[in-house]
Every structure is written in structure tokens, then in C-alpha cells.
Amino acid sequence: AKTEKILGRDIIDVKFDKLLTVQENVAQEIIKGLELNLSPVEAQQLRAQQVISPLAYEYYLRGVDLMGNHDFPVAIKMLEKSAEIAPRYPLTWAYLGQSYTSAAAFEFGGREQYEKAQAAYERALALEPKQLEANMFLANLLIDTGKVEGAMPLLRDTLRRNPHSAALHWELGYAYRFAGMLDESVAECERARAIDPLVKANGAVLNTYLYRGQYDKFLESLPDVNDSAFIVFYRGFGEFHKKSWDRAARDFDHAYELDRTLYAGIGKALSYSIAHRAPNGLEILYNLERKIRQRGVGDAEATYKIAQAYAVLGDKASALRMLQYSIRNGFFCYPYFMTDPLIENIRGEPGFHTSVEAALQRFNTFKRKFL
Asked: How far is CA 79 from CA 18, 66, 103, 118, 127, in A?
């Protein structure tokens, strides 16, 4: 790479049913050409896994791609079809579980989606107990369902076996963010991006910069070419913090046009705040809150954003209610609660300090145990 010298060149001509051998052959050629020294675990991961039919593998690849683009309902269909054809391929179960988890959080899929995710992870780990993806996605499920302390040992143990996994470092940063460990969260997420720049391109959002008030760094951290409703919302959210109202409203409205899911709905409510149409924004938030409570879904960090939007729109009672709900369900980012400009108007309200006291206690306990 330093000398731009070609280290290897080849033509591979195989039938479609031998497609998996292409990946293995190319990987081995790269390792040989770059003279890489792999750990035993890394070498094991590169060896051919269980045989899977080309059709099942096609469904698997399409499902993974759709999941990465936040099209969770169709991803689930693709991965369920793959699992039906090849039920002993563990990666399919891992990604199916993550698609269920994401559908629950983003699409109000219902508590049963979390239960399906748990079952899928158990199936994957029964087939391959130390599989990186299943363990990492299971940790993500624990975080999203209020059990971040339970996710920490799982993440650290898996990371010890896979120290160069960008995705694992990113997930650990996600856990730290829920717990309010902002410096540690940034460090892990930046390490992930140093290992694999595609972490950014694939739609990961480094919320911690937002929580530390580093709005330009937050916007720079977003993918450049990803136009999913999720990323468009976050561009608007960053601009909203910078008080670039026109840009924020444009992005919020565009995200809502693309997909009327949880985050896009929050963005539309904030767009209405810019347009001085508070009743319209509050109507959206009331509907989102009702769905979350009825279906028992929506990760606690997203719920906190509903509290922020309520505060911005002037409904202090609802903002406090959703702040309490968020803390109770596992988002205890205490340092952010004390500095977040979007909830400034509720810090003097009766009940605010009682609410965040519970977050502070959990924050301190987490810090003593894991740092």
C-alpha cells in the first residue's frame, strides 16, 4: 500500500454454486500479499463456515443489506426465508435477531419482536456459541431494553476474543453513551472508525458528540452519502442544535416524507416548533408516546428525544413524564441531562431533580463497577 506496488493479481472463474469459495480465496490472497499475522480467532473466522445453499445465501445477503439501510420489515422477510432454507447457518439467525430488535425500536413492532430477537440469538449461539455477531447483537438488545449493565460483560468478553472488531468497539461506545460515560463513548466509537471507516458510511450515528455540545463534529461524523430517513433526521437534529432553523426544518420535513417512523416523527414535531405550530407538533408526539406505551417498544434513548421535543414545544409536564420514562427504561446519561439545551426549560420544574436523582445513582454505580 505504501509503494503502490501490485502484490497480487488473479482472475477467478467459478460457477454460481461455488460463490462462497471466491470470498475465501480472495481473503487468503490478501492475507498472503500483505503478510498479515492473524490471531487464531481471526484465522478461524476466515475459514469457510458451514455450507449454505446459494439461494439461502442470496436471501441472507439481501437481508443484511436491507437491514443496513433501515428497511427492517423487508430485511426480516429475506432473512426468515434464508433461515427456512438453511436453518443451521448461524449468521442468518444473528442478523434476523438484529432486524427484529430494530423493527421493535424503530417501527413500533411490538414487544413480541424483542421476544423473537431473543429466540433468534439463542438459536445462533446454540449453533456457534462464540459467534461475534450474535453476542454483539444480543448486547444491543440488552441495552435497548434497559439492561446496559448486563451488556457490559458480554461486550468486553467478546471484545477480548475479537480486539480488532470495529463493530464491537462501536457497540461498547453505544453502551457507554446510555450510561453517561461520554469520554469513554467517544474513545470507543473513534477507535471503531479508525479500524474501519465504513462504520461511518454504513449509517452509524455518533450521538455522543451531540451530547458534549460538539455540534460541528457531530455533523461531520454523519455519513456523506446515506440518505435514509434516520440519517436525514440526524442532520436536521444537528442543525437544530446549531440554530440553523431553515436547514433543520428542510431535513426534518424530508425525513418525514421518506419514512414516518419514530425518529422522523420526532423531527417533524421539531419542524412544527420552528414554524410556530406547536399544536401540530404535540399531536405527533402524543401519538408516538401512545404507540410506545401500548406496544412496549422504543429504546430509551429515542424516548428521551420525545422528552426533548415536548420541552421545545412547551409541554413541560409531558417532557418530564417522558424523561422519567426514559430513565426508568435504561437511559441514565446524567451528565447530558444537566447540560442539554433542549430541556433547559424543565430543569426548574418540580420533579426534575427527583427524576434525575435516579439517573445519578445508576450512573455512579455503573462508573464504580465498570471503570
From this structure: 21, 10, 13, 15, 17
Cβ contact 99:86 at 8 Å: no
User: Is a pLDDT exceeding 90 seen at residue 52?
Assistant: no
Which grid cell is 72? 427492517
Alpha helices in 108-244 (DSSP H): 111-127, 132-144, 148-161, 166-178, 182-195, 198-201, 207-211, 215-221, 229-241
User: Which spans in 261-299 are helix H?
Assistant: 262-274, 278-295
Please, are residues 75 and 99 in contact by the beta-carbon 8 Å criterion?
Answer: yes
pLDDT band at 157 (very low <50, low <70, confident <90, very high): very high
Amino acid (one-letter) located at 155: L
Instruction: Report how far apart, in Å, the C-alpha atoms of 286 and of each of 29, 82, 172, 279, 319 are.
Output: 56, 38, 32, 10, 11
Q: Residue 271 CB: number of other CB atoms within 10 A?
A: 25
CA atoms in the 13 A half-sphere facing the CB of 51: 3
How many Å apart are CA 338 and CA 330, to the nearest integer?
A: 17
Q: Phi/psi class of residue 203: alpha, beta or left (left: φ > 0; alpha: ψ in -120 to 50)? A: left
Distance of CA 235 to the CA centre of its chain: 16
pTM of the model: 0.90
Which of 145, 134, 57 minimizes the C-alpha distance to 328? 145
Quick one: what percent of the chain has pLDDT higher than 90?
75
Asked if residue 172 lies in contact with residue 143, where contact means CB atoms within 8 angstroms, the answer is no
Give the integer Cα–Cα distance in Å for 119 and 360.
Answer: 33
pLDDT tens, 255-301? 999 988 899 999 999 999 999 999 999 999 999 999 998 887 768 99
The span from the CA of 145 to the CA of 208, in Å, is 20
Give the integer Cα–Cα distance in Å for 264 and 28.
43
Sequence-ordered list of residues with C-beta below 8 angstroms from that of 289, at least 6 positions apart, any chain: 306, 318, 322
CA-to-CA distance for 341 and 318, rounded, in angstroms? 17
pLDDT at residue number 50 = 67
Q: What is the DSSP letter of 242?
A: T
Residue type at 353?
Answer: H
Choose among 326, 328, 319: nearest CA to 352. 319
